[in-house]
Amino acid sequence: MLVPGRRAGFDRAVERYFGGLYRYAYWLCRNRWQAEDVVQESLLRAWRAWPALREERALRSWLFTIVHREHLRAAARAPRSENDGGAEEPGYHPDPGGTLDMEHALQALPDDSREALLLQVLGGFSCAEIARVLGASEGAVMTRLTRARQALRRQLGAADEATGTAREARKA
Amino acid sequence: MNCFEFRRAAMLDPRRLDTEALGHAERCQACGTMLAEALELEAQIENALHIPVPHGLRERAVRNALETPRISRRQALAAGLALAATAAASLLWRRDDPLALAGIDFVVFEEAQAILDAKPADPVALQRAAVQTGIVLPAQLGELRYVGTCPFAGTTAHHVVLKTAFGKATLLLLPDRPLGARLIASARGLHAAISPTTGGSVVIVADSSRGIARIETILKSG
C-alpha cells in the first residue's frame, strides 16, 4: 500500500505511534529530558525522510528504528544521566510499590535485553522485526527476550521475598 | 508440544502463543499455572513501561519537525566548499597585516582602559553603527559584555566586547574604513581579522582563528 499525502500520513503516524515512541525513548535514555530531545529529533528526521518511505506497513518499525538510532547518536554526543530526579509526569498506578519494583528490575536489565523487551511490549514487534530494528539476528533476539523475562521473574521474586520477610519481621 | 517447548515459547512472548501452545496449557496443569504467572508478569511489565507522555510534547515535536528549515545537500556542499575556499585563502594570505596587528595591540594595551573610562553603553548607537557598517549583530554571536566608542587607526571605532562560545572576542566596527580584501594577523597569543563589509569593515580579535571564522560566518549569515 502506498503512503498517502505527506502531511496527512505524518499526522496519522504521529497520532498512532507517538506514545510508544516516547516511552521507548524514555526507557532507552532513562531520563525524561533526554527522551523528549530524542523523540523530537526523531520526528524531525522522520518528516524529512518521509518522501523516501515507500510502504505504510513498514512505518512502525521505521519510526522505532529512527528513535533507536537517534538514541545512539545522542548517547554518543553526551553521556547518559542515570536519573532525572523523578521528573516523570504524575500518573496513576494501581500498585505503586509493585510498579516501582518492576521499574528497578527493568532498569537492572542488560541494555540489549531491555531494548528487545521494550520493542516487543511497547512496539508490539515480532522477533524478526526486533532483529531488524536492532541489527541483530533473530536467534539473538529470542535469547535476549527469554533472558529478560527470566531476570525479571528472579528479581521480582527476590523483591517479593524481601517484602514478605520485612512484613514478618514487623509482625514479630 | 511438550512442556519444555511450551515454556520456551511462553518465556519468549506469552501473549502470542499459537493454538498448539494454548492447547498444551489447557491440558497440562503445571504449564497452565506457569502461563497464568507469565501473563501476570506481562501485565506488570506493561503497566510499568506505560509512563505518561508529557503534556503538549506531541504537539511540540510535530511543530518542531514541520517548522525546522531543511538545509539541502546541495546547500551543505556549497557551504562546505565555500568554507574550504576561505580556509585555503586564509592559509595563502598568512602575512600579518599592520591594521590587523593594530587591532591586536588595541585589545592588549588599550581595551581595559577604554572599558574603565567608558560612559554608559548606548545600544541604539551601536545598532546605528552596525547598519552603517553594513552588518547585523545577531544574538547567536554571544553575550554583549561592553559597548563603546574609541579612537582606532585614525578613525572612530565602535568597540564591542563579546563573550562567545569560543571565549572572549572584540569587534571594532569601522563604518568609515572600506576595505578591498580580508586582512589577518596573529600576535601576542591573539588572532585578528579585518573583514570588508558593504559599508566599511569590521575588526575581529579573538583567542583562536576558529573563533574568528565562526564570528565571521554569523555576521555574514545575519
Describe this structure in words.
The complex is a heterodimer of chains A (172) and B (222). With 172 residues, chain A is mainly alpha-helical. In chain A, 75% of the residues lie in helices and 0% in strands. Chain A has helices at 6-29, 32-49, 59-77, 96-108, 111-123, 127-134, 138-171. In chain A, helix 5 crosses helix 6. The longest helix of chain A has 34 residues, at 138-171. With 222 residues, chain B is of the alpha+beta class. Chain B has two domains: 1-68, no CATH class; 95-221, Protein Transport Mog1p, Chain A (3-Layer(aba) Sandwich), CATH 3.40.1000. Chain B is built from eight helices and six strands; from the N terminus they run αααααααββββββα. The model of chain B has no long low-confidence stretch (mean pLDDT 84). Chains A and B meet through helix 1, helix 2, helix 4, helix 5 and helix 7 of A and helix 1, helix 3 and helix 4 of B.
Elements of chain B, N to C (H/E): HHHHHHHEEEEEEH
- CATH architectural group of the largest domain in chain B: 3-Layer(aba) Sandwich
Oligomeric state of shown chains = heterodimer
- Label the overall shape of chain B: elongated
- What name is given to the CATH topology of the largest domain in chain B? Protein Transport Mog1p, Chain A
Q: DSSP strand (E) fraction of chain A?
A: under 5%
Structural class of chain A: mainly alpha
What is the topological layout?
The complex is a heterodimer of chains A (about 170) and B (about 220).
Chain A: H1 6-29, H2 32-49, H3 59-77, H4 96-108, H5 111-123, H6 127-134, H7 138-171
Helix pairs in contact in A: 1-2, 1-3, 1-5, 2-3, 3-6, 4-7, 5-6, 5-7, 6-7
Chain B: H1 3-12, H2 19-27, H3 29-49, H4 57-67, H5 73-92, H6 98-116, H7 123-133, E1 143-152, E2 155-164, E3 167-174, E4 183-187, E5 190-196, E6 201-206, H8 209-221
Antiparallel strand pairs in B: 1-2, 2-3, 3-6, 4-5, 5-6
Helix pairs in contact in B: 1-3, 2-3
